[in-house]
Write a structure and sequence with these properties.
The complex is a heterodimer of chains A (about 850) and B (about 230).
Chain A: H1 2-21, H2 33-49, H3 66-91, H4 93-98, H5 101-120, H6 129-146, H7 150-155, H8 157-184, H9 195-206, H10 210-220, H11 224-254, H12 261-294, H13 303-320, H14 325-343, H15 346-375, H16 385-411, H17 420-428, H18 434-442, H19 451-480, H20 492-512, H21 517-536, H22 539-543, H23 547-570, H24 572-591, H25 596-612, H26 619-652, H27 670-692, H28 703-734, H29 761-771, H30 777-782, H31 788-791, H32 794-798, H33 802-810, H34 816-829
Helix pairs in contact in A: 1-3, 1-5, 2-3, 3-5, 3-15, 5-15, 5-19, 6-13, 6-14, 6-15, 8-9, 8-11, 8-16, 9-11, 9-18, 10-11, 10-19, 11-12, 11-14, 12-13, 12-14, 13-14, 13-15, 16-17, 16-19, 18-19, 20-23, 23-24, 23-29, 24-26, 24-33, 25-28, 26-27
Chain B: H1 4-21, H2 27-41, E1 47-48, H3 49-53, H4 64-71, E2 87-88, H5 90-97, H6 109-127, E3 134-135, H7 137-149, H8 156-173, E4 187-188, H9 192-197, H10 203-206, H11 221-225
Chain lengths: ~850, ~230
């Protein structure tokens, strides 16, 4: 054990050195994670050793108790090392864009392993099956299940299942039989492996590894269908492989002669029991989680924990019942995702997401590093050229044959057939990984003489597929011009049209009297909405379930955020003022709207007049004056609102109280409020007085200038909006320009009385947070407006001019619908 | 059960339609459809609105009205006709159904374009109720409201806002529309192509149905007649 320690220190020193000398070599740091794995093994012996090492006579001031902390220390240290390794690897994008991260991590593992070997002359750290299957794999799979795009998965479920079950069996059988045949033919020299053992080997080599597949495909961005086919297959066939492995393992233990038809049938039955039983356990736990999260309102801080703990428990339970643990945790994640996302608090959902990713990514890193470390071990290396090369060849060839054959069958039933290039990528994406290695290590040396050869072959296949195929995957995808996943923005239109499609298809199936996918889906959805959601979801959450609405909400949030950022950037007051001026114009065009032609004319006129720099017609002045008196008081109130909402909030944020169970800002500090209100009142007074001295025509929008400004902070979306807009709407926008712009907001408090009717953008946003649609009480009282406020934010994102959507916001209540429509029209028609 | 004689007599005609419109539908499938047609119409030669409205499975469908209307819309008959029919025969029925055919992998690029256009047109016609070639905001709102009416959580007001926002999205993508009419946000027919700009209109997968070989019509026959 001491050796361990020394090796570790040596490692640390050298790694630090390496890090300093050359960042690239720093990858070596990752290797330490290996010790993490070994630790759990060695920990038993440690415990017996440490504790009584002291023969101290007096009271020591400081004592060095390495053994006391050794195990957890090493674990933590290895985690740290692998993370550092990842850090170093990811620091350089030139390398990772060519070589996938997983391959780099494995290489990093080689280096670390070499260092340990050099220090200890023995490989102290290895990836053990226990550590791998109990501590590293579950979170990766849970993450995969939890983030599974359910609809896509179930749409392609048929294909995935065919590949996962039949494909895997085919791979296992063909590999085993071919190798056996080759041995019979004398291609591999003298090996003590029987047919059953070959089949066992075949079954452990058969599975495509989800960890490796995700790692590679994540960076390649192939299209959705292809991705889900490969990924779904790799997830499900893990379960299949483990089952196959267990069955063959049992057969091997039984020995050839004892296997009769009954045993084989038992094997087949157990296959189904294990697979479906595992999925069932997962479903049950998923439902359990969903139910639990219904009532965790009062323990929000720890509610994310339930998902992890119960997910892990589902894994362990399945393992305990000797069912497929992997399938169990996959289905657990898939089943609960919808409900917990709806039930839990927004923050908790985020926490779950991030924690899930953190765990998964972390253990993925550790897994790869340890795969590398494990290689540097003289004990396992038994070379048999024939066996190893033939395995490699067969693995590759049979994968291709299997995929092409199965896809050929599937394509006869698929609406959109998988293309040839897709099939190539699917075949080529058959990466083997840590699951195969874990299973290989689990082989019983007493029963299988050539265990080391198998382990070493497995490792070589893993390295070959992950490193070589991983590296060549990207060029291949490019070269074959595989359809890539398009980067898309969410859009309402998309959701609506999708919904439309779905309903149409269901209706057509109904009319034509078929029972097809759409029919099934609609039935399931109906059942799900009426029963499952009712049981598993909070009543409050149920309302928000509509997808379209969800997108709408998201878009609104996004707009609101941009709006606020914009406001903050420009200084909120000026922002408000600008809005007003646009309203003015808005009002004007509306008043003219009885005569459309007229309005158009004025638009045109405005466009013309831009050159003459005398743009805004006098109408706005009149409007302004008319409204001025009536609204003066209201204006004050509104200003109060704006400021109150805005400024007070920012204050609040600084007032945290420490509490382990609550994140609240302390609200009950009345003094603060009191002081604040007084200040506010003072300020308001100064505003009103300032306003009196102000001349009305200052309703200025410096549109062109503003637009340029907008581009900068908001990055792409604004930018895009701008360019798309500039094409046709140029004249219209120019018509807003007022030459007499006044720059200093301080001297120009809200000119326009109208603003009392509008909801300040940030107000709208804060409400979005709390209640989606409904306005806060205050807002409802003071501003008798409907949720339609929020809608007006939506256009902002895509609308050609963001300011336009602001104007929409400002239109008074009664006329809002009409005005808006007209406004939109005028906008569009130009 | 069904009117077999009539079916046989007209088979050649149907097959012609099939040749024109369906690339991938077999005779067997046509026969199934014919059976279903007979079943819906109660062994008459024509089918009417009421017949379709009586289908129980359609009751849950929020856009049931639009769908049924689409069946009786002359625009969906691949002829340059406008207006709506009271009754349709099997031929017209097939015509409408043909909008949902999947596309052969062997189809040429040109055929694919045509089919895509037809599918989009069908969808467009469902929105454009007064068939002036323009989907106005009002028309769109109506559809969206009905579409969203199913889930009780969304009120009409919100549905309207969603429709508006979606329309604005259209408007913002719709760059080249110098002459569109005032007072109307419209999705013009000529701009159907904008729909293509979105990745999601993988129209072939979105709007195709695999017409089954087996006779599943009879499977639901009992339900219908009961």
């Amino acid at each position: 054990m001491l050796r361990c320690g020394y090796a570790l220190f040596w490692l640390l020193g050298s790694v630090l050195l390496i890090c300093v000398v050359s960042p690239v070599k720093g990858e070596a740091v990752v290797t330490r994670e290996g010790s993490h794995l070994k630790l759990s093994e060695s920990s038993h012996s440690n415990e017996s050793q440490h504790g009584h090492s002291s023969n101290i006579t007096g009271i020591p001031i400081i004592s060095f108790k390495w053994h006391h902390v050794e195990t957890p220390y090493l674990v933590a240290f290895w985690v740290l090392v692998s993370f550092l390794g990842k850090l170093v690897i990811e620091a350089n994008h030139h390398v990772t864009s060519v070589i996938p991260e997983s391959a780099l991590l494995i290489c990093f593992g080689f280096i670390l392993g070499g260092m340990i070997w050099a220090a200890d002359k023995v490989q102290t750290f290895r990836l053990t099956p226990t550590v791998f299957f109990f501590y590293l794999l579950p979170q990766v799979i849970l993450d995969a299940g939890y983030h599974m795009p359910n609809k896509l998965f179930f749409t392609n479920l048929g294909g995935i299942l065919v590949h996962a079950v039949i494909g895997t069996c085919w791979n296992a059988a063909s590999l085993g039989l071919s190798l056996w045949g080759c041995q019979m033919g004398g291609a591999m020299g003298d090996l003590d492996i029987g047919l059953l053992q070959y089949l066992l080997f075949g079954s452990l080599m058969a599975a495509v590894d989800p960890v490796a597949v995700i790692a590679v495909f994540e960076q390649v961005h192939v299209n959705d269908v292809l991705f889900i086919m490969v990924f779904g297959e790799s997830l499900l066939n893990d379960g299949v492989t483990v089952v196959l492995f267990n069955v063959f393992d049992a057969f091997v233990s039984l020995g050839g002669p004892k296997i009769d038809a009954a045993e084989i049938i038992k094997g087949i039955v157990s296959f189904f029991v294990v697979a479906f039983g595992g999925s069932l356990v997962g479903l049950v736990f998923g439902l359990l989680i969903s139910l639990l999260t219904r009532c965790t309102k009062n323990i929000q801080i720890i509610e994310p924990g339930f998902i992890f703990v119960l997910g892990y428990l589902s894994y362990l339970t399945a393992e305990m019942l000797s069912l497929s643990a992997i399938l169990s945790i996959v289905f657990c994640g898939m089943c609960c995702q919808k409900y917990i996302n709806a039930n839990m608090d927004e923050n908790s959902v985020q926490t779950v997401r991030y924690a899930m990713k953190a765990f998964a990514n972390g253990s993925e890193t550790i897994i790869f590093v340890f795969l590398g470390i494990s290689a540097i071990d003289k004990v396992i290396w038994v070379w048999n050229t024939g066996f190893i090369l033939l395995t490699l060849l067969f693995v590759l060839v049979y994968r291709f044959i299997g995929v092409f054959f199965l896809t050929w069958i599937l394509n006869r039933y698929r609406l959109v057939p998988l293309e040839f290039v897709d099939q190539v990528i699917m075949s080529y994406g058959g990466l083997r990984g840590a699951v195969a290695y874990g299973l290989a290590v689990m082989l019983d040396e007493n029963k299988i003489k050539e265990k080391n050869l198998m382990v070493c072959t497995t490792l070589i296949v893993v390295y070959f597929t992950v490193i070589l195929q991983g590296i060549t995957m990207k060029p291949l995808v490019m070269w074959l011009k595989v359809k890539r996943a398009a980067v898309t923005e969410v859009s309402l239109l998309e959701k609506l049209t999708n919904k439309m499609f779905n309903h149409t298809l269901v209706a057509i199936e109904d009319i034509s009297g078929q029972i097809g996918h759409n029919y099934m889906r609609s039935k399931w959805k109906y059942f799900e909405e009426n029963w499952m959601s009712w049981i598993l979801m909070k009543p409050s959450a149920r309302k928000k379930q509509d997808q379209v609405f969800d997108v709408f909400h998201q878009l609104n949030l996004k707009d609101a955020m941009e709006y606020v950022t914009e406001g903050e950037r420009r200084g909120s007051l000026e922002f408000v003022r600008n809005e007003n001026s646009i309203i003015d114009f808005k009002k004007k065009s509306e008043s003219e709207s009885f005569d459309i032609n007229n309005a158009n004319m004025s638009n045109d006129h405005g466009a013309m007049s831009t050159t003459s720099r005398d743009p805004i017609p006098s109408v706005s002045l009149e409007m302004h004056e008319q409204i001025m008196k009536a609204v003066r008081e209201a204006e004050a109130i509104n200003a109060h609102h704006l400021l109150d909402q805005h400024l007070y909030k920012s204050r609040k944020q600084h007032r945290h109280r420490f509490s382990r169970s609550h994140f609240d800002i302390n609200r009950d500090e009345k003094e603060v409020q009191e002081i604040f209100q007084r200040t506010m009142r003072n300020r308001l007074k100064s505003f009103t007085s300032a306003k009196m001295g102000v001349k009305p025509p200052k309703t200025i929008v410096k549109h062109t200038q503003k637009e340029q400004q907008q581009k900068m902070p908001n990055g792409k979306s604004m930018d895009k909006a701008k360019t798309s807009y500039s094409g046709d709407e140029g004249p219209n926008s120019v018509s807003f320009v007022h030459p007499a712009g006044i720059e200093n907001p301080a001297f120009m408090p809200d000119l326009d009385p109208m603003d009392l009717l509008q909801i300040p953008p940030w107000l709208g946003e804060s409400e979005l947070d709390s209640s989606m649609v409904a306005l806060s009480h205050r807002a409802q009282v003071d501003l008798p407006r409907t949720p339609s406020n929020l809608r007006r934010l939506a256009p902002l994102r895509i609308s050609t001019r963001s300011t336009d959507s602001f104007t929409l916001e400002n239109i008074p209540d009664t006329q809002q619908m009409d005005t808006q429509e007209e406004f939109l029209q005028s906008k569009l028609t130009t | 059960m069904y009117n077999y004689k009539h079916y046989c007599k007209n088979l050649h005609k149907y097959i012609h339609i099939v040749d024109v419109c369906f690339f991938t539908v077999s005779q067997e499938q046509i026969k199934n459809l014919y059976q279903r047609f007979q079943q819906l119409s109660g062994n008459h030669e024509k089918i009417s609105r009421d017949d379709l409205e009586r289908i129980p499975a359609l009751n849950n469908n929020p856009i049931r009205k639009q769908i049924i209307t689409a069946f009786f819309d002359k625009r969906n008959q691949h002829q340059n006709d406008v207006g709506s029919l009271d009754e349709i025969g099997f031929e017209q029925f097939l015509m409408v159904m043909s909008h949902f055919r999947p596309v052969n992998s062997t189809a040429t690029e040109e055929e694919k374009v045509t089919v895509r256009k037809q599918k989009l047109r069908f969808l467009f016609n469902m929105h454009d109720t007064d068939n002036d070639g323009i989907i106005t905001l009002d028309e769109y709102r109506t559809v969206v409201e009905e579409l969203l009416s199913q889930s009780g959580a969304i009120e009409t007001e919100v549905a309207r806002s969603i429709a508006d926002a979606a329309m604005l999205e259209v408007a913002s993508t719709n760059v080249h529309s110098p002459h569109s009419r005032p007072r109307m946000i419209s999705m013009k027919e000529s701009h159907l192509s904008i729909l293509n700009r979105f990745r999601w209109i993988n129209i072939f997968s979105m709007m195709s149905i695999r017409f089954l070989d087996m006779n599943s019509a009879t499977m639901r026959c009992g339900k219908l007649s009961s």
